[in-house]
Amino acid sequence: MDAMRITLPRLQLTVPMPMKIEKVAMSPGEDGLIGIPFPEHSSEILAHLNDQRRAGLLCDLTLTSRGARYQTHRSVMAAVSLYFRRLFGAEEGGGEGGGGFSVCQLDCVAPDALDALLEFAYTATLTIPSSGMRDVLRGAQLLGIQCVADACRDILGEKAEAEGETAEEQRSQHIATENMVQEQSRVDKGSRRKTDRKKVKNMIPIYINSSFSNPSPASPISHPSPASDSIRSQPFTLPPSPKQEELDQKIVQNGGSRMIREPGRGASLNGGLFHWLHERPLVAHPSPVSSLNDKLSEDDDVEGCGDDAMLIGSTSIPTSASDRGAAATAAGGGRKRKSQTPQQCPVCQKIIHGAGKLPRHMRTHTGEKPFQCSACGVRFTRNDKLKIHMRKHTGERPYPCPSCPARFLHSYDLKNHLSLHSGARPFECPLCHKAFAREDHLQRHRKGHSCLEPPTRRPKRKPDAFEDGSMNGDGREQSRQLEAVSLQAHSSAFLPRVLLDGGSGSGTGPPLMFPSDIERRSFALQTLAQFEPRRLASYPQLFLRGLDLREGREAEEEDPGETHSPASQRDRWADEVEEEIGEDEVEEEE
DNA sequence: CTGGGGATGGGGCCC
DNA sequence: GGGGCCCCATCCCCA
Prior knowledge:
Among the domains are: about 10-15 and about 40-90 and about 100-160, Potassium Channel Kv1.1, Chain A (2-Layer Sandwich), CATH 3.30.710.10; about 340-395, Classic Zinc Finger (Double Stranded RNA Binding Domain, 2-Layer Sandwich), CATH 3.30.160; about 395-450, 2-Layer Sandwich (Double Stranded RNA Binding Domain), CATH 3.30.160.60. Helix content is about 45%, strand content about 5%. The chain has helices at about 20-25, 40-55, 75-80, 80-85, 110-125, 135-145, 145-155, 160-165, 165-190, 190-195, 225-235, 240-255, 290-295, 310-315, 315-330, 360-365, 385-395, 410-420, 440-445, 475-485, 485-490, 495-500, 520-530, 535, 540-555, 565-590, and strands spanning about 60-65, 70, 105, 125-130, 275, 345, 350, 370, 380, 400, 405-410, 425-430, 435. The strands form six sheets. It has a three-stranded mixed β-sheet with strand order 2-1-3. It is elongated and about 75 Å long.
């Protein structure tokens, strides 16, 4: 249900839409200047630049590496790379602030690595073969792309090694960089045509301790504004700029066809792909509808499906929803399901249960907040939420604690509070046995990386304890055995196994990923599948794994028969870990 | 990292 | 069927 939370923070639908801007401006109590954030602006700019790069539009820089050519934009490269900043004199206090380079030969950076770094520059996504990690690290160091270099070192376990560099070494490397930049600059100023053929053979590996930060900071993937979408929908029909024509001619003169390499194409696909998403994925732009779907998928991954790619899921909506409801009823949740006609949202196709609930749901799309607090002007999408909000002004706290003077605004606050009195912590981590009073705290605990310490409360299982019949296999004993699965199982129990296996270092293994990027990759894959299937075709393994991964999560989270009782959750988690054990044992036998 | 408060969106029941 | 009210799950934010 929350699979997309990381990449899809709650949409601020009231802001980007022009008709809502007026509402914002008219909000009482907001005199003077107003700030209207467009959180998707930076990502859209980057995406447009990437489109231009792929189309060869407005490119004013060609990078070459061992025969491969990559068209790019100097401004982007200067924003990403300290090396290019200095090369172009674009660094703060720099010289002419632009330079006149058109071709830069970087034979010291492997083509695939350069390709990956370029892709990173335009998408904030680093996609490289795991076998090419060192090349990328080397390239990132050479070009002064610090965040990529740091990530590669982390992955390669060379953090300490890199940090162990002496200041003297870094100084010498820094000087080498300066010399390299100066040399490149001097020659290039002399003859731009000569630059095409010039080989920078004396590039010295450098470590630039820059403070580069991602040019596209994490921003919520929110719906694009209609205006931006209309722009995006227009094909690129602009004629090449004179500079572009010159550049193209130059490329032809140099005997090289224009080469916009796609990441991961060709030989680089041999090994297991390492796909690392830096910040948010920028592989493509979702349409407004799909954005809304994505937004909805925060809560219901299957239900919010309006695009063709997800039609299968869409057709299953009514069944799924009704089944879930029926299952909830059958599970003895308490409330009897009222016979009512579900309504389907025309925007996201989501099935809304309950008569009269569709308008309420639609406001989540439009951003309309018709209910305004007369005291502070805050607006709400729902009247009942405003009513609760008004309690803050009236001081009404209708939920008193029977055990103490505390009173609460919400019934669930009281419920949480009561658990403090009772000391009840019904939500226990099946692995470290840490107990929580609130389910969401346990979920947070499981999702985070806090659950990494080896279990200490219970002894390790005996090797054959389960087989010799001395154990009855009940849940408690099973839990003890689960603890013996080891730290790896502990940390991996809630991660798709393929991801962890990817860390084996094998070049042919599955992709290695950071756990926190699971959802991001999943989203990126889906977006890629929807908007750039051609590129996705280059990632067969990645695509399949991504979908498997996502389906796995959905299967886990969309189980129509699941209940949210602590006991049932423990059972499910125990099952997960049990499967983990089974897999481990199979591996041991092998 | 955890505990706690608050916000948000969906579903059930009722009028 | 529309809407109010309530409960619930989940998330975010802050200390």
